[in-house]
Amino acid sequence: MNFTLNVWRQKNANDQGRFETYQAKNISPEASFLEMLDVVNNELEAEGKEPIAFDHDCREGICGACGMMISGRAHGPRAATTTCQLYMRNFQDGETLTLEPWRAKAFPLVRDLVVDRSAFDRIIQAGGFISVNTGNAADANALPVPKDNAELAMDAAACIGCGACVAACKNASAMLFVSAKVSHLALLPQGDAERVRRTLNMVKTMDEAGFGNCSNTGACEAECPKSISISNIARLNREYARAKLLS
Amino acid sequence: MSSILKKFLMALTGLALVGFLIAHLGGNLYLFLGRDHFDGYAKKLEEMGPLLILAEIVLAGLFLTHLFMALKLTGENQTARGAQGYADNSKNQSTPASRWMWITGLFVMMFLVVHIKMFKFGEREKPITAKGEEIIKAFNGEEAAKQFARESGEHGSLYGLVQKEFKRPAVVGFYVVLMLVLGAHLSHGIASAFQSLGVLRPGWLQCLKPWCVALAWLIALGFALLPVCTFFGIGIN
Questions:
Q1: Taking CB atoms and an 8 Å limit, are B79 and A105 in contact across chains?
Q2: CB spacing of A105 vs B80 below 8 angstroms
Q3: Residues of chain B positioned with their CB less than 8 A from the CB of A100
Q4: Are strands A109-111 and A114-115 parallel, antiparallel or unpaired?
Q5: For the segment A1-41, what is each residue's pLDDT rounded down to a tens digit?
């Protein structure tokens, strides 16, 4: 398969940045999107040019490192798919693809398609953990968790923190990410002890990082590679109201 | 104030304004019962005196809070998105109504100014006084006598003003278009308010959202019906 790529190239945060056009030739339909970029980069390096910088790590769809806007869709056109799990057979032969980095003030650009997502780390550091001593590993079922809650917590915990929600949101809001992290811990008995403090601190850090406000458009949910539901955002709003009343 | 608190305020003031719209539409339906019922309803409201003024102040407060928070949130959101936009922005997975809330909101605000100027401060047709009744009687209830009697009266008739304005095609067109804009605003706004207040549990969202959208269009089309029915003389004469 052959593709024309319009790729955003930017040396660093101070550089102006511009689109450059590359040809991806003889790409296997079984190649993943990142493998296709590897092929293009090999050719660029052979020509003595600077390869396209992009984030990646596990390439199994579980780490959240990869991610870019592919022709206006976060992680490309397939639902519930990370960029690394997107295969070239999902595109038309000869298609022109526009590759852009996540755009958000809270995600400053590092280089080309790489952005700095440390704002997410700071939100997690503000409360996305359990610090109370929960003792040794308990026997299975010693700590009762209602099945429904276990399912909802697991669904929320599927968030890999890739930032597609922020990239897709017209307001660059991080509410889906924060709500997934708050929900996943608030629904489990181990997370209950720090529920109030966690919610207040994570929301405060989110606001300070410069993310936008949630307009409930649902664009985040549609682009999330892990199909995190915006019902988590409703839960975060409830948790926040509860935390404000109890603090 | 945190982002979530700001959204709480948007949602609460928005829902309160929706409550007002429902009451306002209910009152306006008196138009279908005729001049006496509608003017009687208007008179009752005006006779509330200080209570009405208080209600107007609360309404203005709700509206201005909603407007102020909207401007603040929209400004913050545009800053958060950053200066560099996407080259391809055509495939955003959300409804146009949800993306254009601030635009539709500004149009609704513009409508409100025109609407209040037209009907609250508009010059009203004068109703028939006791002396006027005598004249009508003397002329055996002729239409010209009724007209004369109305024009020589002292107090204005809101029904007459509505009749006068809603017989003008430009006004009818303006009202219908702006009510469609209001419908678009509410079609996202009502369900969004419940989501912002965190009352939507998993499953409820899918269940409640169609009802919220239906309510939005019921309100908008209900209001749009009034100028259309008046213009064509369907049920309102």
A1: yes
A2: yes
A3: 86-88
A4: antiparallel
A5: 999 999 999 999 999 999 999 999 999 999 999 999 999 99
CB pairs under 8 A between A and B: 146
A123 to chain B: which residues are within 8 Å by CB? none
* Residue A53: DSSP 8-state: P
Q: Out of A98, A222, A235, name the one closest to residue B88 (CB).
A: A98
A residues 166-185 lying closer than 8 A (beta carbon) to B: 168, 170-173, 175
Q: CB atoms < 10 A from the CB of A13, how many?
A: 12
* C-alpha dist (Å) from residue B223 to B28, B44, B176: 8, 21, 8
Say how far apart CA B147 and CA B34 lie, in whole Å.
Answer: 17
Residues of A in Cβ contact (< 8 Å) with B191: 216
**How many domains, in total, are found in chain B?**
1
CA distances from B125 to A193, B149, B150, B154 (A): 68, 11, 7, 9
d(CA B99, CA A170): 8
First to last CA, chain B: 51
Start-end ranges of CATH 3.10.20.30 in chain A? 3-100
Task: Report the amino acid identity of residue A175.
Answer: M
Cα gap A167→A2, rounded to integer Å: 27
- Architecture of the structural domain at A118-246: Orthogonal Bundle (1.10)
Report helix, strand or coil for B124: coil
Backbone angle region of A78, left / alpha / beta, with phi > 0 → left and psi within -120 to 50 → alpha: beta
**Residue B131, in any domain of the structure:** no
Selected from 3.90.1640.10, 3.10.20.30, 3.40.50.1820, 3.40.50.11720, the CATH number assigned to the domain covering A3-100 reads: 3.10.20.30
Alpha carbon of B31: minimum distance to chain A alpha carbons (Å): 37
User: Is A223 in contact with B98 (Cβ distance < 8 A)?
Assistant: no
ipTM associated with this complex = 0.94
CA atoms of B232 and B234, how far apart (whole Å)? 6
In the DSSP assignment, the letter for residue A96 is: E
- Give the torsion sign (CA, B196, B198, B202, B207): negative
Q: Please measure the distance between the N-terminal and C-terminal CA atoms of chain A and give it in whole angstroms.
A: 59
Residues A53-90: pLDDT tens digits?
Answer: 999 999 999 999 999 999 999 999 999 999 999 999 99
Closest residue of chain A to B102, computed from CA coordinates: A215
Residue with structure tokens 């664009």?
A: A219
List A24's β-bridge partners, or say none.
Answer: A3
